[in-house]
Amino acid sequence: MARGPRLLPFGVLLLFMLSLLWYTKSGDGLSYIQGHGYSYNINPAVGFKSPKDSVKDVHNSTLGFQKAFVLNLAERPDKLDAFALASTLTGFTAELIQGVRGEEVVNKALPSLEGLPEKLDSRNNVVGCWRAHLNFAQTVVMEGLTSAIILEDDADWDTSLKDQLAIFAQGSQYVTAVSPNLKPHSPYGDDWDLLWLGHCSNQIKPDDERRFIIENDDTVPLTKHRVNFAGVPDMAAEGYDNNTRIVYEANNGVCLYGYALSFRGARKLLRGQAQRKTFVPIDIGIGYMCRDDPNFKCIGVFPQLIDSHKGAGRLSRDSDIGSFSAQSVRQKGYTFNIVHSTRLNIDHLLAGEMDKIERQWPGDPEVKGPLRAKPVGRIFD
Question: Which residues, 6 or more positions from 184, have their beta carbon under 8 angstroms from its beta carbon?
């Protein structure tokens, strides 16, 4: 009995000491999870070796971010079903950010009424989307997350997403000028506000010289298969072939199929959207911030790593903001810009048949030889 009172404080002290191994804070107001130990052997085929520590945590259950989220309207549990299946089969899980109906957002909660669509349906669509993405940024700030990624509930990605992100992370470190002598807290580097991984348009900042070039990549769709809805990098003009992907500082963009915010980026996004004099859809507003705000650093990738899936069946099920005839039916599903679509390979993934993963465009020539990656432009300032 005499030992009891002494053991309890020791146990509490031990738990406290263990917790300190995981949680610390930095001088810039960010709370970092420690103890990851980014020691990782970078693929020797990749030309740029990440600073000392690595991109290992990209392979964890939140893709190297502190949390992952999925955006879903409560009335579309079918989309959440499909997302849960696809994400867990590729090794990550996401928490829910509830979608917002635009009619639930009163005008006084908007930064400006100027620029709103005249038609009520269109107004509700863009306002609901705007508010839902701001709720994501608000969650990052309120929970003090170092970083978080969010995907739309109909997003799709390559079955090798984690391997793609491991290479992208090296590119992000290079583009944000992580010195080989420094240890970044995030596998993606620490000097970024937004990682634009899934888009339908993205452009390179014109005065930025840094590029991270990923060559001989079997997950890059050929030019004839790429579908985008606004400006994208002119790969041919820059001398890149069909199997090349690039990482760069982004100047503008459209569509938010999947993107990540750092803590500082989430705070800037809340500030930037709250002070607009003219209302614009959230993706366009973010694109303007990437283009016009020198203190808002966006890292882009092209071709994109995440896109929007269009499933087989009634077209009326596709969009929560568009409308299609209930009689219109799609015989076969597809996803723009994704070679080994996770959504289209669900049955193979469920069966563990990794050797049977199918390409969306099986007639394309096979990519031979190892993947190569190299930095281009100034190395470190």
Answer: 38, 51, 53, 173, 178, 190
Nearest CA-CA partner of 270 in 95, 111, 145: 111
The tokens of 127 are what? 């306002």
Residue 299 CA to residue 175 CA, distance in Å, equals: 8
pTM: 0.84
Residue 170, CA distances (Å) to 145, 167, 274 in order: 22, 5, 33
CA torsion sign for 87, 89, 92, 95 is: positive
Task: Report, as an integer, the average pLDDT of 331-355.
Answer: 95
The phi, psi pair for 6, rounded to 5°, reads -80, -30
Query: What does DSSP assign to residue 190?
Result: S
Class of domain 56-309+367-376: alpha beta
Alpha-carbon distances of 343 from 303, 308, 312, 337, 381, rounded to whole Å = 18, 10, 11, 13, 42
Residue 254 has pLDDT above 80, yes or no: yes
Both tokens assigned to 229: 């809805």
Give the C-alpha separation, 305 to 247, whole Å: 11
CA 128 to chain centre: 20
Say how far apart CA 126 and CA 279 lie, in whole Å: 10
SS3 assignment, position 119:
coil
In Å, how far are 79, 200, 242, 302, 303 from 71, measured between CA atoms?
Answer: 10, 18, 32, 23, 23
Q: How sure is the predictor about 5, in pLDDT bands with cuts at 50, 70 and 90?
A: very low
